[in-house]
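User: Please fill in residues for this 49-position structure.
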């Protein structure tokens, strides 16, 4: 699924099925990923943009 904006991303998280999937995935993610707040990047330019 392609998300256009931060608002689109935030709205996509409101769907009941998405929340259920995230709840199932978090215990697995917690075992392999460091506990840090998410990283937000802004693309400034590059090839093909």
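Assistant: Residues filled in for all 49 positions:
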């Amino acid at each position: 699924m392609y998300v256009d904006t931060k608002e689109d991303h935030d709205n996509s998280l409101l769907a009941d099925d998405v929340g259920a999937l995230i709840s199932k995935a978090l215990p697995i993610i917690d075992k392999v990923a460091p506990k840090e707040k998410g990283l937000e990047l802004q693309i400034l330019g590059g090839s093909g943009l």
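For context: The CA atoms of residues 34 and 42 lie 22 Å apart.
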